[in-house]
Write a structure and sequence with these properties.
It is built from eleven helices and 24 strands. By secondary structure, the chain is of the alpha+beta class. It has one domain: EvaA sugar 2,3-dehydratase subunit (Nucleoside Triphosphate Pyrophosphohydrolase, Alpha-Beta Complex), CATH 3.90.79. Strands 6, 7, 8, 9, 10, 11 and 12 form a seven-stranded mixed sheet that branches. A hairpin with a 6-residue loop joins strand 2 and strand 3. The chain is globular, with a radius of gyration of 22 Å. The N terminus is likely disordered.
Length: about 500
C-alpha cells in the first residue's frame, strides 16, 4: 500500500486521439484513477483549511424586504431581481390525483438558464486527475467545499453580476481542441426548482494550463474518499462525478484487507460490468410507463396566492412550520467573482434522508430505485433513491403518505449500512440544507417491491446517466457514493 500511495510526479503525458473517444478506454482510465489514492485525504483537508483563511463567505439572514436589488412584483408577490436575470421565486399549483396529497401550492425557484458544471481532466504520470476548486458558497454550513472546475449559471458567465470572469470556462466552450469524456444535461431538485437543468461536463485537456490559486488536481480515488467526509464534496461535484463512464471494466486490484466487506465490494464491481445490464427495452418501457401513467400537473401561480404559506417576520414559511422556508441572505465574500450581494434562498426544515437499498442477486449487486414524480421535473418522473424525504414532514400527513422503505433505512443495523455521510445540497440557492446519504444492504428476507420501484444494476444506472432526465440529482449523488465503495480503505489519510 505504501507504494501505491507515493506522491505522483506531475508530468503530463500527451493525450492521443480527438473528440471521438473510445468509451471502454475512457472507462478503463477512469477506473485506474478511482483506484489511486493520490496524496491522500489529509493533504486535501489541510489545503482546504489553509485556503479558508483567504477565501470565504459570510452569510447573514436578513428580512426578504431588505434584499438589495430584489423586489416583489406588485399584485403577484413574485420575488425578482431588478435585472430580470438570475432567477425568480414564484408560486406553483400542483395536482396529483393519485398521490396521498392530491393538491397543494408552494413557492418554487424558477431559473430557466442552463448552467455549466464542468470538470477538467488531465493525465499525470499515467493517472487521470481532475481539477477541482475550493469554493465558498453562501449556503454552505462550513465555508469551503470541493467544487467542479467550473460551476456557473449563464448569468454568471455572461457577466450579469458585473463581476470577474469565470476561470477555465473557455475549455468548456471551445471543446474541439480537447477530448469530451461526458456531456449531458441533467435536472436539479424537482421539489424546489421549476424545470431547472445544468450541463454536466468532463473535458480532458490536451495542453498545459496554469493552476490558479484555490484549484487543485485530484485523482478520482481522492474524490471518492472525500465523499465519506461530511460536507466536503459539494452537490455539483457529485452530479458530475456520477456522469463519468466508470462502469464496464475493473482494473486489477490488490487483495481486499477487509474480508467482511469483500463479497459486497465484489458484488458491486460485478454490478458495474454486468453484461446483462444494458439499457433494455423493458427497463426503458417501465420508465415510460411510469411517466405516462402519472397524472401530476403543475402550473405557475403568483407567489402571493400560495395558500398555506405566509410572508411573516421577513421570511416565507408554511403555516405548519414544515417543508422549507424562503429566507433572505446578505453575503460578504472573498475570492469570488463578486465581493458582496443579497439574495433569497430556500432553507429546508430539518436534515433529510436520502438512501439506496441494495441487495445481492447471484453475486451481482442490485439497487432499488423509485420512479418518483416531482412537480418541477421536466418530464414529471425521474428515477430517485429508494428513500428521499425529510422524515419530520410526514408527522402531520396521513399514514399512507409515509414513504415506503423509510423504516427499513432508519432501523437498519450498523453492519448493513455500507455508506453514511451528511452532505450539503447546492450552496448557491439552498441555505444550510443537508441530507444524510446512505447505502443500506437489505437483510436475507428482502423487502416487498412496490409498482413504482424497481431493482436495477449499477451498470444500468450508468447507461441511463448517458442521457438527460433519467436520474434525479439525489440519485446521481448516491451513484457517486456507490462508486466510492468499490475500493477498500476509503477513510485512510
Amino acid at each position: 500500500m505504501a507504494a501505491s500511495r507515493r506522491r505522483l510526479r506531475l508530468v503530463a503525458r500527451p493525450v492521443p486521439g480527438g473528440q471521438a473517444t473510445d468509451r471502454a478506454a475512457s472507462a478503463d482510465r477512469i477506473a485506474r484513477s478511482a483506484a489511486h489514492p493520490g496524496d491522500g485525504v489529509a493533504a486535501v483537508l489541510g489545503w482546504l483549511a489553509d485556503l479558508a483563511e483567504r477565501s470565504w463567505t459570510t452569510a447573514e439572514r436578513v428580512p426578504l424586504e431588505d434584499l438589495v436589488g430584489w423586489s416583489a412584483v406588485p399584485g403577484r408577490g413574485d420575488l425578482v431581481h431588478r435585472t430580470g436575470r438570475f432567477y425568480r421565486i414564484h408560486g406553483l399549483d400542483v395536482t396529483a390525483p393519485d398521490g396521498p396529497v392530491p393538491h397543494w401550492r408552494q413557492p418554487v425557484i424558477d431559473q430557466p438558464e442552463v448552467g455549466v458544471l464542468g470538470l477538467l481532466a488531465r493525465e499525470f504520470d499515467g493517472v487521470l486527475h481532475f481539477l477541482v476548486q475550493a469554493k465558498a458558497e453562501p449556503g454552505n454550513v462550513n465555508g469551503l467545499q470541493i467544487s467542479p472546475t467550473v460551476q456557473a449559471t449563464r448569468s454568471n458567465y455572461t457577466g450579469a453580476h458585473g463581476g470577474r470572469a469565470v476561470p477555465y470556462l473557455e475549455y468548456f466552450r471551445d471543446r474541439e481542441r480537447h477530448r469530451v469524456i461526458a456531456d449531458v444535461r441533467q435536472s436539479e431538485q424537482g421539489a424546489w426548482f421549476h424545470r431547472k437543468r445544468n450541463r454536466n461536463m468532463v473535458v480532458e485537456v490536451r495542453e498545459d494550463l496554469p493552476v490558479r490559486p484555490g484549484f487543485r488536481w485530484l485523482t478520482l480515488g481522492q474524490l471518492h474518499r472525500l465523499l465519506a467526509v461530511d460536507d466536503v464534496v459539494n452537490m455539483d461535484t457529485r452530479t458530475v462525478l456520477a456522469c463519468l463512464p466508470l462502469t464496464g471494466v475493473t482494473p486489477d486490484e490488490p487483495p481486499d484487507p477487509l474480508p467482511t466487506d469483500d463479497r459486497f465490494r465484489a458484488a458491486l464491481r460485478r454490478s458495474a460490468r454486468a453484461a446483462s445490464a444494458a439499457l433494455s427495452a423493458e427497463l426503458l418501457s417501465w420508465v415510460t410507463d411510469r411517466r405516462s401513467l402519472t397524472a401530476m400537473q403543475a402550473r405557475r401561480v403568483p407567489l402571493a396566492e400560495t395558500h398555506g404559506w405566509r410572508w411573516r417576520d421577513g421570511r416565507i414559511a408554511h403555516h405548519r412550520g414544515r417543508f422549507f422556508e424562503v429566507v433572505g441572505v446578505a453575503v460578504r465574500a472573498r475570492g469570488r467573482e463578486v465581493d458582496g450581494w443579497t439574495q433569497p434562498m430556500i432553507e429546508a426544515v430539518g436534515t433529510g434522508v436520502v438512501a439506496f437499498l441494495v441487495r445481492r442477486v447471484g453475486g451481482v449487486l442490485h439497487v432499488l430505485v423509485h420512479a418518483r414524480a416531482e412537480p418541477g421535473s421536466v418530464d414529471v418522473v425521474e428515477l430517485a433513491p429508494t428513500v428521499q424525504c425529510q422524515p419530520d414532514n410526514y408527522l402531520d400527513l396521513p399514514a399512507g403518505a409515509r414513504p415506503p422503505y423509510l423504516d427499513e433505512v432508519l432501523d437498519a443495523p450498523p453492519e448493513r449500512v455500507r455508506f453514511a455521510a451528511t452532505l450539503s445540497e447546492e450552496g448557491g440557492r439552498f441555505f444550510h440544507t443537508r441530507n444524510r446519504y446512505l447505502v443500506v444492504e437489505v437483510g436475507p428476507r428482502g423487502v416487498p417491491t412496490h409498482p413504482d420501484y424497481r431493482w436495477v444494476t449499477v451498470r444500468q444506472l450508468d447507461a441511463l446517466l448517458r442521457h438527460s432526465h433519467y436520474l434525479n440529482v439525489q440519485a446521481r449523488s448516491l451513484v457517486a457514493c456507490l462508486h466510492s465503495l468499490r475500493h477498500p480503505n476509503r477513510g485512510e489519510s
